[in-house]
């Protein structure tokens, strides 16, 4: 490599840069689409990608980051499984002069110089949109609305922020009660398992708020298994809008989906090239997203890319 003024690494020659990317895992349809987007965009952008899957374990991510530092990649990007506990390894990257880009999920490090930028969605806003739909749905009713919540993996930015945004909006009316809230780790299997437990201990559940489509899809199996009709007996709101979620929405089993885009690859490669050149980048890049009703899901499904 001839990195010279481009700093950092010993990755390829000429303009070719090497990126080390540590992915959370393969826990959901969202994650699969995100991985594909990053791999395809790297190819298109001529970025040499070293990719590793941490299977939702922070220790695996830290190991991957250390190995990228050792290999002297030009830039590191990663989607942190939880928000806390990154300062030491981020400091190591900084000392090695390797720029870091947070992708999709944030860290809670007080020292903002440990990374160059954070590209991803506004998860608080997503939670708020979910809450706003609910408030609108029940605006003419005075009865208590019993809500159960399936959270993402404990300590993850989207789990913390979606819970916060949703909670803030529904707090405006005391008729909304979250009667149970547990992590379902963003997976279908855990979503099903936790929903089964919710159904056993709570005879009257009106609404399920699941932090992603996959947990909602698992919960649908649990609800059907308990002899109830998802979307009718229990209203379901999820976040992501991946294909299987959109199909369930079109089929009336989910009532509302807040979109969270996994297609971050192109923007990530653009940012990577800039930070490697030492150019200024915004410290926060927020993805643009929408919401879907069943009718809108039917319209959108044929053209959805994931
Ligand atoms: O919503 C979920 C995935 O971090 C935004 O992680 C991402 C979330 C996404 O497992 O499906």
TrEMBL record:
Top-level taxon: Bacteria
For this UniProt entry, the molecular function terms from Gene Ontology, in alphabetical order, are: carbohydrate binding
The entry's localization annotation reads: Cell envelope
The residues forming a coiled coil are none
Matching PROSITE patterns: PROKAR_LIPOPROTEIN
Q: Which residues form the Periplasmic binding protein domain?
A: 21-280
Spell out the GO cellular component terms annotated for this protein, sorted alphabetically and separated by semicolons.
Answer: cell envelope
Q: Disordered: where is this region?
A: 287-306
User: What main location does UniProt list?
Assistant: other
User: Which Pfam family, just one, is annotated for this protein?
Assistant: Peripla_BP_4
What keywords sit in the KW lines? Signal
Family per similarity comment: Belongs to the bacterial solute-binding protein 2 family.
Q: What is this protein called?
A: LacI family transcriptional regulator
